[in-house]
Amino acid sequence: MFYTSIRTLTLACLFSSVIGIATQEKRDDGNSGIPTVDDVKNPVCKPWIAIRDAIMGDIYHGRCNDNTRAAIRLAFHDAGTFSLSREAAGQDNGGADGSLLVDPNEVLRDENNGMQTIVSLLKPLPEKFNVSAGDVLHLAGTLGVLACPGGPVVKTFVGRGPVKNVNPTNLIPDTHDTIPNIVNRFNDMGISVREAMALIGSHTCARQRFVDPAFANDTFDTTPDIWDIRFYSETKRNDSDPGVFRLPSDLGFAHNSLTQKDYNRFVGSLSTQENWAREYADAHEKLSLLGQDADTLTDCTEIMPEAIHLRDITVTHSGGAVDPAVDPEKLAAALQATRSIWLS
Ligand code: HEM
């Protein structure tokens, strides 16, 4: 589908820029790598095309931007308060239920600093489309991953019920905490070290503002708009690139005996990227279901646009190439081919 789209790209670009084809017409052309309502087979999933477009279009503009970064982090902070030990003790629990969109105070906590804008943008959608906050929040997370070129399709489910309770405090790992404590916290979520090391790679498209405000907007790798594995290699080497910030916890993961073996699995070449993308997608799916009964939900992954594979936008296709650079022309072509209706 991707190559077909590339073949038709030149003509499509020419027409759209000359006569300004309307969004709906472009969506129906069948070549955009973007499923339409007619393409979607499960009737439960059809209404989700409009919600997908509201997020991918109005909020992300089809790109990896500050709203997509914040939405991915939001998905973690919503789900990551899940606790097996609290559940076993019958205590209030967190989980992937969208409470961060509903409770007015949660987003004001220090640990959630920086997510106020994305929360205010997503907040109206549950009521507007008559769906749950948890479904909207976690669709925003999986679409956020996909909006960053190189990001995989993460299986996306709908049907979560209303928010269960306000997330308990002190359950989101802090970057200054020790690696054993952070590992324990992930284990208590039900997330293994291997899964946690895959998830932490989402820092490939991240920025910091509050750990050290003197370096506000610094990124965690040199390619913050691309979903690649440079984060792992650059953090491990502790490169000193201008504008790049290292979180103490990320440096710890690269070198601590509890985590370095699983961390190192993602330092490497284009073939390593493929492994990471696959493992990341599985781990993010698990995260998005914490505290939910997956058997009661509906898999609506069929609404998701096509992924842009890193191998298709790098200067080399060789699987052995380590951290290959992205070719800007290939990137622009891939965005047009698979995100055209949302780009602005
Ligand atoms: C040990 C676990 C983690 C720690 C300690 C941690 C810590 C942080 C910190 C301190 C920031 C910068 C916040 C700011 O100052 O603006 C950040 C950003 C971010 N984190 Fe994490 N994180 C962890 C795990 C994760 C996971 C599992 C995900 C997603 C699956 C994630 C996704 C992100 C994203 C996308 C951003 C960028 C947000 C933005 O640019 O607005 N993090 N993280």
UniProtKB/TrEMBL annotation:
Q: Which cofactor does it need?
A: Ca(2+)
Tell me yes or no: is Hydrolase among this UniProt entry's keywords.
no
| Highest taxon in the source lineage | Eukaryota
* InterPro entries (alphabetical): Ccp1-like, Haem_peroxidase, Haem_peroxidase_sf, Ligninase, Ligninase_C, Peroxidases_AS
The signal peptide, as residue positions, is: 1-20
Q: Name one Pfam family in it.
A: peroxidase
Copy out the cofactor comment.
Binds 2 calcium ions per subunit.
Provide the alphabetized UniProt keywords: Calcium, Glycoprotein, Heme, Hydrogen peroxide, Iron, Metal-binding, Oxidoreductase, Peroxidase, Secreted, Signal
- As recorded in UniProt, its EC number(s) are 1.11.1.-
Gene3D superfamilies (alphabetical)? 1.10.520.10, Peroxidase, domain 2 (1.10.420.10)
Family annotation (SUPFAM superfamilies): Heme-dependent peroxidases
Q: Which segments constitute the Plant heme peroxidase family profile domain?
A: 70-304
Q: Name one GO molecular function term.
A: manganese peroxidase activity
PANTHER family reported in the protein's UniProt record: CATALASE-PEROXIDASE, THYLAKOID LUMENAL 29 KDA PROTEIN, CHLOROPLASTIC-RELATED
**Assigned protein family:** Belongs to the peroxidase family. Ligninase subfamily.
Protein name in UniProt: Peroxidase
Annotated organism of origin:
Marasmiellus scandens
Name the gene that codes for it.
GP1_13
